[in-house]
Design goal:
This protein is of the alpha+beta class. It has a three-stranded antiparallel β-sheet with strand order 1-3-2, with no helix packed on it. A two-stranded parallel sheet has the order 4-5. A hairpin with a 2-residue loop joins strand 2 and strand 3. The longest helix is centred in the N-terminal third of the chain and has 17 residues.
Length: 174
């Protein structure tokens, strides 16, 4: 879990510092700093591709993939085919207030979590909202009910209303 994130951060730092792309597998095949540094020295320097923020504006065009999904949703009603549903089991005591603050921080930091799709002059466009509220639901449930709840969780979104994700916290009872 955490190791893959650390490796991703290391690869990004190597790319920024040395203008080279270090493949993920190289970390495992060259586990020492010496071996990695020797490999980095042999890599061809390329142009570092930094992601640049778009200029602030009211609406942004959709990417080609977003357009395709949007059109399919409008014409065919694809339902939840492109939804990603995840569930996690947490053990121990959960500080719900800190979880809520972390969620708010993520939403504030990542514009994609505050984005909706609206029609402007007949064209679908992205609208990044300054602030959105995500509904926080806490339910006390029995383990036997979890599978049914998860099955009902994936349902259509109104693409014109951010956020385009939902979450629910299930607390397992005895």
């Amino acid at each position: 879990g955490g190791h893959s994130l650390k490796i991703t951060v290391l690869i990004a730092k190597v790319q920024k510092a040395f203008s080279v792309t270090l493949p993920y597998g190289e970390i495992f095949s060259r586990p020492t700093v010496k071996e990695l540094s020797e490999r980095i020295a042999l890599l061809t320097k390329g142009e570092s591709k930094e992601i640049v923020s778009a200029e602030p504006r009211e609406y942004y065009p959709l990417s080609s993939k977003q357009k395709r999904i949007y059109v399919m949703e409008q014409m065919e009603g694809i339902g939840t085919a492109y939804h990603i549903t995840s569930a996690f089991v947490l053990e121990g005591t959960l500080d719900k207030e800190r979880l809520s603050q972390a969620i708010d921080s993520l939403i504030t930091r990542h514009a994609s979590l505050r984005t909706s799709i609206v029609t402007v002059d007949g064209q679908p466009m992205q609208k990044v909202h300054a602030k959105v509220q995500v509904k926080r639901t806490l339910r006390q449930v029995q383990m036997a009910d979890v599978e049914g709840i998860l099955g009902q969780f994936a349902r259509k979104f109104d693409l014109s209303r951010a956020p385009l994700f939902r979450m629910e916290l299930l607390e397992l009872g005895p």
